[in-house]
Specification:
- This protein is about 80% helix and about 0% strand.
- By secondary structure, the protein is an all-alpha fold.
- The chain has two domains: about 1-45, no CATH class; about 75-180 and about 190-195.
- α4 packs antiparallel against α5.
Length: about 200
């Protein structure tokens, strides 16, 4: 140990010859100040809390505070944001209009085809009824009353059954539409089946 102390003392003498005593004193004081600053900073860092802010909005443009912040960071950015929001709204409206036009066109075609099918069914039913009743009259005029009666009853029975089943089908359909409206359906109607014709 004595040799270590002698060695340290010899080292100090050499450094004191090379570095003036005032500089050594200033460096020692500076090292002390640095260690004190480290202690102060570590205490300050421990006292800092992390604060996060989460902001959510659902409009195409941000709230006024944030909007102004954009303008403060980059001049003209607020105008660019507004133009971007306007383009987005125009695009969305154009898409919705196109979708509605397509839906209207499709429903119009569906209604037109339904009207044509109804008309075709009425014409076919009328022709069949006329042919059946004409056949019954012809058979009755040619001394075949039983055949005439069977043909006329069969024709009239089929006409009555079509009208009765057609009316009950319309009632069932309107009842089901009313039920779906009460249950909160979105109002989309399905095409009536051709069995009601």
């Amino acid at each position: 140990m004595a040799s270590d102390d002698l060695h340290d003392q010899a080292q100090e003498e050499k450094t004191s010859e090379l570095i003036p005593a005032k500089v050594v004193e200033d460096l020692t004081e500076l090292a002390s100040d640095v260690s004190q600053l480290k202690d102060i900073l570590s205490q300050e860092v421990i006292g800092i809390k992390k604060v996060e802010r989460y902001l959510e909005y659902s409009s195409p443009i941000p709230p006024p505070e944030i909007f102004q912040g954009y303008e403060d960071v980059l001049s003209g950015s607020a105008d660019r944001i507004l133009k971007m929001a306007e383009k987005q709204i125009e695009h969305r409206l154009a898409a919705e209009i196109k979708q509605l036009e397509h839906r209207i066109k499709t429903e119009s075609k569906l209604v037109d085809s339904e009207i044509k099918l109804n008309y075709l069914g009425l014409c076919s039913g009328f022709i069949i009824a006329i042919l059946g009743l004409s056949g019954a009259v012809y058979l009755g005029a040619n001394d075949r009353p039983v055949s005439s009666g069977v043909l006329s009853v069969g024709t009239l029975a089929s006409l009555v059954s079509v009208f009765v089943s057609g009316k009950s089908g319309v009632k069932k359909q309107s009842t089901s539409e009313n039920d779906s409206d009460r249950n909160g359906d979105n109002g989309e109607e399905t095409a009536p089946s051709s069995s009601n014709l």
